[in-house]
Amino acid sequence: MKIFCKKFCVLFFLNIVLFFAGCAEDDSTEYTLYPDNTNLYFRKLFPNDQAQNDSAAAYLAHGITLIVHPQATYQLSFDVDPNFEAPTLQLFRLVLSEDQTEWYPYKVRSIEPTIDHGRYVYSFMCEENAQTDWATSLELDETYYKGRVSNIRLTGDGAYSDHFSINMILVGNIEQEIEDFTIDELASNLLKEFRKQYTSVTIDTIYINHAAKHPTLGKKYPANEPWLAGYSSKDHFLSELGGWPGIENALDIVFVHYINDEGVLGYSNLFSGNLGKGIGSTVVLGTHVKAPYGEEAVSMKDIVETALHETGHFFGLRHTTTTIADIEYIIDNYDFGDYSNIEDGLDDTPRCNGKTRWALLKVSKTDINAALPRIYVSSNASNSDLSNCPDASNYMFPTIVNGKELSFSKQQLEIIRKSLMIYPH
């Protein structure tokens, strides 16, 4: 039986390789080097991310994941190692198995680099019809490139509009629960501040919709009770509400009563890349915050600031000072987090140092993987300590600090614009 199993497994693997080789777009005589990094899906490069990404650099030859978008053009680059010849970059589309337990690589193309100022530059275009994960390998002499890969970057340019609209989706009885302002006042202030702060792009208009009136999902979202994100529905983000019928390409901001994580005002996935429907299509905010002994109402100012913060994550901005939620990624008690990405990599955003920074690292530990929260209160660092952080007045500081006038840096605004023009809308 053991001999049969071994033969069967070998034959099955060879059939998989031959199948994908037969599907390849390249010449069938070209040598194909499949990625062999078993954790390649957890080593990712996002377009225009300036974080250090040392882990991605270390695994590039054996396989990492590139996040690509339809009709965008990309350049993957890293420093030349003079001790080795230039490797060939091979790209593979990751196809999920029918039982959704394994990823299989399907060859897309091979690319030879140009050399620009001591860096290998691989240029390519994404011809997919939706956001896709592509895997890599670096091949030299029919084996994995053994040279040093350092200072890796994935830059991307898109041809989509630099305009977008905002769709406010109200879940539950929010209008009855808020006391100090109305929904119309919140919408007006939200639009005003987005236009004031997001100066590198244009916000066309803002819509207000109620989840209870969704044409197909409305019955799932009763309008006569508070909605607690995390207690009910498939996920915290209520992503099934994204891509609202009739305004499918707006930024969907979902408002709930509160998020079922203590002190958390809002969530968004980093580089969501989805101004449409489905996973990654929503930002979620609470009008109240879960406190140690109950809940607290959130001011309109804090809600608006959190909306701008979380939308910054949506368009690819990291926290200016890293928290544990930024780097930890635990699945089945194993941490797949990339601990090389402890800074945002931008020259014009300072960060907290010393004891306060390490206190922030301990703050915002949540059970929402790959989510970046906006924290309302900090139990590990006093508000007075946080107010002395040089980045406390930046919108992407992870914790709300009272008495600060917030803004984005020039480089942050440029990332927002480049990401928006990559995302189909």
Describe the structure.
- The protein has 425 residues and is of the alpha+beta class.
- It folds into 2 domains: 15-157, Sandwich (Jelly Rolls); 163-422, Collagenase (Catalytic Domain), CATH 3.40.390.
- Helices cover 22% and strands 25% of the residues.
- It contains 9 helices and 22 strands.
- The protein has helices at residues 2-23, 54-59, 174-177, 183-197, 300-314, 324-327, 354-362, 383-387, 410-422, and strands at 44-45, 65-68, 73-79, 88-96, 103-111, 114-116, 119-125, 132-140, 143-144, 153-157, 163-170, 202-210, 228-229, 251-256, 258-259, 264-267, 282-286, 288-291, 294-297, 330-331, 334-335, 374-375.
- The strands form 6 sheets. Strands 1, 2, 4, 5, 8 and 9 form a 6-stranded mixed sheet that branches.
- It is globular.
- 43% of the residues are buried.
- Residues 1-27, 363-371 and 376-382 have low confidence and may be disordered.
Give the number of domains. 2
CATH topology of the largest domain: Collagenase (Catalytic Domain)
The CATH superfamily title of the largest domain = Collagenase (Catalytic Domain)
Query: What is the CATH architecture assignment of the largest domain?
Result: 3-Layer(aba) Sandwich
Poorly predicted runs of 5 or more residues: 1-27, 363-371, 376-382
Number of helices: 9
> Any idea of the CATH class of the largest domain?
Alpha Beta
Count of β-strands: 22
Q: What is the CA-atom radius of gyration, in angstroms?
A: 23 Å
Biggest sheet record: 6 strands, mixed
Distance between the termini: 55 Å
Fraction in helix: 10-25%
* Coarse morphology: globular
Mean pLDDT: 84
Beta-strand portion reads: 25-35%
Q: What structural category do the secondary elements indicate? A: alpha+beta
